[in-house]
Amino acid sequence: MKKVMVGMSGGIDSSVTAYMLQKEGFEVEGVYLKLHNRTDGYHESNISYIDNVAKHLDIKYHILDITKDFTKEVYDYFVNSYLEGTTPNPCVKCNRQIKFGKMLDFAKEHNASYLATGHYAKTDGEFIYEADDKTKDQSYFLSQVDKEALPFMMFPMSTYKKEDIIKFGAKLGDIYKKITEKNESQEICFVDTVYTDVIKKHANIDQPGIVFDEEGNEVGTHKGYMHYTIGKRRGFTVHGAHEPHFVKSLNAKDNTIIVGKKESLEINTVEANNLNMYVDDTNFKCGVKLRYRSHLLPCEVSIKDDRATIKLKNSAFGVATGQLAVFYIDEKVIGSAWITKAFK
Ligand SMILES: Nc1ncnc2c1ncn2[C@@H]1O[C@H](COP(=O)(O)OP(=O)(O)OP(=O)(O)O)[C@@H](O)[C@H]1O
């Protein structure tokens, strides 16, 4: 019997994942990653749900303290990105370094043939694809996972709708029903409220600064650059403006922001680095997502060394450095790269 290690979070998707794989005939074992040092009962509560599922399925589970790696690879990166005036994507880093890095190593050390998670995505061992439930699709967040990891990954949620998993879970019995009734997990697991509450622990983010227009004229004031992301249109003043103004760029060095009208945020070229490609092509046409939940934008990509230049067929607005450009051919992810520059 082949062994599958299931990344169990205490949520319904990974609980149903474990249940389904056992029904399919796999030997299932669970692992819970302690990602951060929270002392508010967060881990105890997650573990108690996992413990109930494990008892029901009569499976073994492990608790892996990975706080050191998570702090270095994900949390510190998140805080530093805001300090530098860029917009981070911690889940992308976590998937590459932690879940399909350290957790996969752990699965292999325990002789598992596969690592399964409750992510909404598909894989055939060679590529990642969008999930059938487009409202839950997480392929964007998985697109930096190392090619070598793909043959070991399993996503049993790939063809289901989240609402069906909740209904299915509720019918499985009290243990699962209770899991469906708890609050949905936050978008970023270590951000309880808003990201600024996390950054506040590390820096004084409330230092007012100057707002400039694109010509370099001083036009207003803001609350501190870390409160803003590209494309934001509130929380700063622009004297005498009749039309809405949007954040065009952030300057961490002198705590200034540059704003402009919507058309000034228009870009059609994006530069990106730290590529993770699943194909060898260096010049290709594809669709690109420049942020999670954006539409696929038709583009032409040319890659040289570790840099991609992405020429968009139509303009895009408000593209933030620090986000990920993910390349798709229809539903198939062919690679991704981190945005360093976006311009017209
Ligand atoms: N702390 C953790 N330990 C082990 N695996 C985890 C952990 N957090 C998430 N995972 C795995 O990654 C998957 C995706 O995580 P994500 O946070 O996006 O979803 P989720 O809504 O928390 O899913 P779930 O309903 O399973 O909690 C989970 O389904 C689970 O398999």
Summarize the structure in words.
The active site is at 94 (nucleophile), 189 (cysteine persulfide intermediate). This protein has 344 residues and is α/β, with parallel strands linked by helices. It has helices at residues 12-23, 42-57, 67-84, 90-109, 139-142, 162-171, 174-181, 195-199, and strands at 3-7, 27-34, 60-65, 114-116, 122-123, 128-129, 153-154, 209-212, 218-222, 246-251, 256-260, 266-277, 283-289, 297-304, 307-317, 324-329, 332-343. It has a six-stranded antiparallel β-barrel. The protein has a five-stranded parallel sheet with strand order 3-2-1-4-7, with helices on both faces. Helix 2 (42-57) links the parallel strand 2 (27-34) and strand 3. Helix 3 packs antiparallel against helix 4 (90-109) and helix 6 crosses helix 7 (174-181). The longest helix is centred in the first third of the chain and has 20 residues, at 90-109. It starts with a strand and ends with a strand. The mean pLDDT is 96. Adenosine-5'-triphosphate binds at residues 7-9, 11-14, 31-33, 35, 99, 117-119, 185.
CATH superfamily of the largest domain: HUPs
Number of folding domains? 3
End-to-end Cα distance, whole Å, is 56 Å
How many DSSP H or I helices?
Answer: 8
Enumerate the spans where pLDDT stays under 50 for 5 or more consecutive residues: none
**Ligands (ions, cofactors included):** adenosine-5'-triphosphate
CATH topology of the largest domain: Rossmann fold
How much beta, percentage-wise? 25-35%
Instruction: Give helix % range.
Output: 25-40%
Overall shape: globular
Characterize the biggest β-sheet.
Answer: 6 strands, antiparallel, barrel
What string, H for helix and E for strand, traces the elements in order? EHEHEHHEEEHEHHHEEEEEEEEEE
Organism: Malaciobacter canalis
EC number: 2.8.1.13
Keywords: ATP-binding, Cytoplasm, Disulfide bond, Nucleotide-binding, RNA-binding, Transferase, tRNA processing, tRNA-binding
Binding site for ATP: 7-14, 33, 118
